[in-house]
Design brief:
The complex is a heterodimer of chains A (114) and B (115). With 114 residues, chain A is an all-beta fold. Chain A has no helices and 11 strands. Classes of the chains: A mainly beta (114), B mainly beta (115). The interface between A and B is medium-sized, with 30 and 23 residues.
Chain lengths: 114, 115
């Protein structure tokens, strides 16, 4: 158990809908990262938050947004869902902003868009 | 840009066989290199890492050496077990800020070990 929790574990929804994925980092970790794992794109970095502020963006679609709250949990919002958004979404946390700080991954949320 | 290329799977081995999973990278500067493992139905776990050239990361019988001259970080294990069956990801973290701690992953290699 990495100490990172993600809810829900599975999510099935329809095209055009909006969903919210939730991540709670390890106790004491200030950084939260979101990654998408899909069959065609592999594992891709989406976005990084540190202590409530967005610090880096990767291949994140405009339909997707995220935030990190004062209690450090994070939510990834996916809207106008398309079939191609079906994937496993991982959250990871680390203590530091940068440098040699290991990322600990949660178990993921599997999103299926029908 | 930064990228990671690893051998395609699946790799199928018998128990106690020798394992090599190749990984090469392209990066500016001096990245840190990682191997992560994903067991069925679970998230990724850090297996080992190396932060500078010629460093050897090791854990649970797995080893990988950071080779700057060949831009490689191949994963090896002398004798695999059925419990090693999983997907293995090679990854790098750039030494330049701007991406901060973001990890860039290879496509993953599935390993299946049979008794």
């Amino acid at each position: 158990d990495s100490g990172v929790t993600q809810t829900p574990k599975h999510l099935i929804t329809a095209t055009g809908q909006r969903v919210t994925l939730r991540c709670s980092p390890r106790s004491g970790d200030l950084s939260v990262y979101w990654y998408q794992q899909s069959l065609d794109q592999g594992l891709q970095f989406l976005i990084h938050y540190y202590n409530g502020e967005e610090r880096a963006k990767g291949n994140i679609l405009e339909r997707f947004s995220a935030q990190q709250f004062p209690d450090l949990h994070s939510e990834l919002n996916l809207s106008s869902l398309e079939l191609g958004d079906s994937a496993l979404y991982f959250c990871a946390s680390s203590f530091r902003l940068a440098g040699d700080s290991e990322q600990f991954f949660g178990p993921g949320t599997r999103l299926t868009v029908l | 840009g930064n990228s990671v290329t690893q051998m395609e799977g699946p790799v199928t081995l018998s128990e106690e066989a020798f394992l090599t999973i190749n990984c090469t990278y392209t990066a500016t500067g001096y990245p840190s290199l990682f191997w992560y493992v994903q067991y069925p139905g679970e998230g990724l776990q850090l297996l080992l890492k190396a932060t500078k050239a010629d460093d050897k990361g090791s854990n649970k019988g797995f080893e990988a050496t950071y080779r700057k001259e060949t831009t490689s970080f191949h994963l090896e294990k002398g004798s695999v077990q059925v419990s090693d069956s999983a997907v293995y990801f090679c990854a790098l973290r750039s030494s330049f800020s701007g991406g901060y701690n973001k990890l860039i992953f290879g496509a993953g290699t599935r390993l299946a070990v049979h008794p």
